[in-house]
Amino acid sequence: xxxxxxxxxxxxxxCVYETPGALYIPESVRRRAPGAFLYMHTVTPxxxxxxxxxxxxxxxxxxxxxxxxxxxxxxxxxxxxxxxFAQAALxxxxQAALxxxxxxxxxxxxxxxxxxxxxATREALFSYERVLxxxxxxxxxxxxxxRFGDTCIVNAGIAGRHNYSRFxxxxxxxxxxxxxxxxxxxxxxxxxxxxRLDIIDGTMLAFVKLTDASFRHRGTxxxxxxxxxxxxxxxxxxxxxxxxxxxxxxxxPFCGCGNILAERAAxxxxxxxxxxxxxxxxxxAEYNIQNLPAYVSSPRExxxxxxxxxxxxxxxxxxxxxxxxxxxxPWGGQIKTDDLxxxxxxxxxxAAYWLKPRGRMVILTPFAGLPKLAAGYGxxxxxxxxxxxxxxxxxxxxxxx
Length: 401
Prior knowledge:
With 401 residues, this protein is of the alpha/beta class. The protein has 2 domains: 27-215, VC0802-like; 223-400, Vaccinia Virus protein VP39 (Rossmann fold), CATH 3.40.50.150. It is built from 13 helices and 15 strands. It has helices at 27-30, 48-59, 79-87, 92-95, 128-132, 135-148, 166-181, 213-216, 231-240, 259-264, 279-290, 340-354, 370-375, and strands at 39-42, 61-67, 70-75, 108-117, 151-159, 184-185, 193-200, 203-209, 249-252, 271-275, 305-308, 322-327, 355-365, 380-389, 392-400.
């Protein structure tokens, strides 16, 4: 049997979620005053809509703008927003030990400092000292030094045509900050503060990073393996399947190290079921689910989680017993299989048996022909978005029985 079609940039697949390109700065962000109550979080490009909805629902936040891979938002000072952003006022060394609450689709969270108009010429590199000398911006920078410490690194990203590199912009900004505020240059192993510059067509947005690797890795104990999804991406897939319910029976038949199941465990459930053909993957999944971060309050009784070291085709579940399936099946790249299309066909046949009427699936795959294949088993499938992952293009499909 032939291999599934691998999408390229010429594929025409209608996606539900479309996002403005990276060269776009929302006007509402461009006009923000220095120190405005504005935050940005980064997300896997293509999943911005899901991340924005999470911000709105969990933090009661106002979405200020969305661009590729970024969501700009202003949390209203109540509920979880108070707790989450109060953490940012603590020294970085103390933040890592604190529970990160609700923004689980975010890879990183940044606090807005200021926006400034520069130029696309090299003269911009000599303007940063003038920009940082602004009275309000100087107050903010000194406040950041008190909050985080003296040692900082600066990262910059540039979009559009400029006569200087992002490395030159970061170096010039760091030199100006060192001269004006006494900040010392650090590195990734030794820093108190990380500043980020986004320079788009001569407009510079400056942010301070509020999160470190422990945020996007769910602490320091999560076990990963080859081809594993990042937790934030796994969480976005969980939310794409619909609002989690305490009565859900949830299945991932290609669970790998269990990131999708561990992210679903952040909410109440009736039963979690995972299956993988690799014994080591199942062992890691068991560890990850048993060692969830402290803020996860859902039930963890052994009877509520079932993990199986099986080929998915040997999994024995009752018909019409599963509410939701969220999975990242093999792509034929990092995880090899002899007959990929046959595996997908067998999976869809079994899913049609396992799922309850109107049961739902979210599937991450590069297989552009999945909707047509799924229709043969009684499913309606639509692509929510297209993302780039592991150097390949893939679709997030929502499939309904």
